[in-house]
Specification:
Strand content of chain B: 25-35%
Largest sheet of chain B: 8 strands, antiparallel, barrel
Number of strands of chain B: 10
Number of helices of chain B: 8
CATH class of chain B: Alpha Beta
Number of strands of chain A: 4
Helix content of chain A: 25-40%
Radius of gyration of chain B: 18 Å
Oligomer: heterodimer
CATH topology of chain A: Alpha-Beta Plaits
Number of helices of chain A: 4
CATH class of chain A: Alpha Beta
Number of domains of chain A: 1
Largest sheet of chain A: 4 strands, antiparallel
Structural class of chain A: alpha+beta
Radius of gyration of chain A: 16 Å
Strand content of chain A: 25-35%
CATH architecture of chain A: 2-Layer Sandwich
Order of helices and strands of chain A: EHHEEHHE
CATH superfamily of chain A: Apc35880, domain 1
Distance between the termini of chain B: 32 Å
Order of helices and strands of chain B: EHHEEHHEEHHEEHHEEE
CATH topology of chain B: Alpha-Beta Plaits
Shape of chain B: globular
Distance between the termini of chain A: 28 Å
Structural class of chain B: alpha+beta
Number of domains of chain B: 1
C-alpha cells in the first residue's frame, strides 16, 4: 500500500472480552490462543513489536490496552485480517488508533499546532 | 432546488454483531443475495457507491463506505430495501448524511462518476469538522488568511494524487458542520497533508473527527471472506 517510512507507526489497541469469550470452554480458549500466537508471531517476523500490555479496568470503559509499533501499514492490515480469520473479533471488542512516531523538541511547534 | 432534489453524501460505518458469527450458511447466502440486490437497486436510482473500506485497525468499527445519492428520497428507499434484506440483523451501524455544497476546490468532478473504489487510491479518509471558539474569537481577516492557507494545502494534496469527493453540509443532521471524503494513494500522503494543515491553522479553527480505512475488494461475513462479491469494482 505504501513505502515504509523511516519512523514506525504506533498503534494502540483498547480491548475487552465479548459474551462469546466467556462461554468458551478451556480447550476452545486454548485453541484460539494458539492461533492468536501464530498470528502475532507472523506479524513479529515482519517487524511488528508489542511495546507493552496494560490493565485499565478501573479507569476506562475497556479492560486492557496494548501499545504496538509497526514498520508499515500493510503489516498491521494483514495482522487484522488474520485475526478476522481466527474469529478474534467474535471474542473481543476493540478500539484502535495509530500515528507516526515523531521527535518532540523543546520548541512549542514540535508539541502540537 | 428543493431539499429532496439535492445530492446527499452518505457515510456508513459499522461492525458485525454476534448474530453474524452464529448464522447458518444458508442465512448468510440468503441475506447476501438480498443485500446485493438492494445495492443494484440503489445504483439504478443513481446512487454512487465508492467502495468498501476496512477499519478494524484504525477504529472501533469494522468497515465503512461512502455514497453520493441524487437526493434524500433515493437514500430512504435504499435503507428500506436494506432493512428488508436483513442488513441490520448482522451489523451495528452509524450513518451520517449531508447535502453536497458547490465547492469546486474540494470536488474532483471526474471521480464523482466512479463506481466502486479506485485500486490505485487504496486509502479512504472521512473527515467531519465544526468551528471552534477560536474561530468565533478571530476576525474576518484571520479567517480569510487561514482559509487561503488550508485551501492551498488541498491544491497540493490534489497535485499529489488525492481525490476529494466534495464538501457536505451536515449542520442540520449531526453535531458537526461539514464532512468530506477523500481517496488517497498512501498513509504517508495523508500524514504529509496533516503536517501542512497544522501550520495553516486548520485545527485552530476547527475541531475534527477523522476515520481512515483500506479499500477492501471483498466483504467478510463472520470469519468467511465472500470472494464472489467485489466492492472495489462496484459489482
Amino acid at each position: 500500500m505504501s513505502a515504509p517510512s523511516a519512523q514506525p507507526l504506533g498503534w494502540i489497541k483498547f480491548w475487552k472480552p465479548k459474551d462469546d469469550w466467556y462461554y468458551l470452554v478451556p480447550g476452545e480458549r486454548q485453541t484460539y490462543l494458539d492461533s492468536f500466537a501464530k498470528v502475532v508471531a507472523h506479524a513479529t517476523e515482519r517487524g511488528a513489536r508489542l511495546v507493552g500490555t496494560y490493565k485499565c479496568r478501573g479507569q476506562s470503559p475497556w479492560a486492557r490496552f496494548e501499545v504496538w509499533e509497526f514498520p508499515d501499514l500493510q503489516v498491521l492490515i494483514d495482522m487484522s485480517n488474520q485475526l478476522e480469520e481466527i474469529g478474534h473479533f467474535q471474542y473481543f471488542a476493540e478500539d484502535h488508533t495509530l500515528g507516526r512516531r515523531y521527535v518532540r523538541t523543546g520548541h512549542a511547534d514540535s508539541w502540537v499546532i | 432546488m428543493t431539499d429532496s432534489s439535492q445530492p446527499v453524501g452518505f457515510f456508513a460505518l459499522w461492525h458485525n454483531k454476534r448474530s453474524e458469527y452464529h448464522a447458518a450458511y444458508v442465512e448468510e447466502r440468503g441475506t447476501g443475495i438480498h443485500i446485493q440486490q438492494a445495492f443494484e437497486n440503489a445504483r439504478d436510482r443513481g446512487i454512487k457507491i465508492f467502495g468498501l473500506y476496512g477499519s478494524r485497525w484504525s477504529s472501533e468499527r469494522q468497515y465503512f463506505t461512502f455514497w453520493i445519492c441524487p437526493n434524500l428520497t433515493a437514500l430512504e428507499i435504499t435503507m428500506d430495501d436494506l432493512e428488508r434484506a436483513g442488513d441490520f440483523k448482522f451489523a451495528d451501524s452509524e450513518h451520517i448524511i449531508g447535502v453536497r455544497l458547490h465547492d469546486l476546490e474540494m470536488t474532483d468532478e471526474a471521480y464523482l462518476d466512479l463506481d466502486g473504489g479506485d485500486v490505485n487510491l487504496p486509502l479512504g479518509f472521512f473527515a467531519l469538522w465544526r468551528q471552534t471558539d477560536a474561530f468565533y474569537r478571530a476576525g474576518p481577516e484571520e479567517w480569510t488568511e487561514s482559509n487561503r492557507a488550508v485551501r492551498s494545502v488541498f491544491k497540493v494534496a490534489r497535485a499529489q494524487g488525492v481525490r476529494i469527493l466534495g464538501r457536505f453540509d451536515c449542520r442540520w443532521s449531526t453535531a458537526w458542520d461539514y464532512f468530506t471524503f477523500w481517496l488517497l494513494p498512501s498513509l504517508e500522503t495523508l500524514e504529509g497533508i496533516m503536517d501542512q494543515l497544522e501550520p495553516a491553522g486548520d485545527f485552530k479553527f476547527a475541531d475534527s473527527r477523522h476515520i481512515i480505512g483500506n479499500l477492501e475488494p471483498h466483504f467478510r461475513f463472520g470469519r468467511h471472506l465472500q470472494t464472489d462479491t467485489d466492492w472495489s469494482k462496484g459489482e
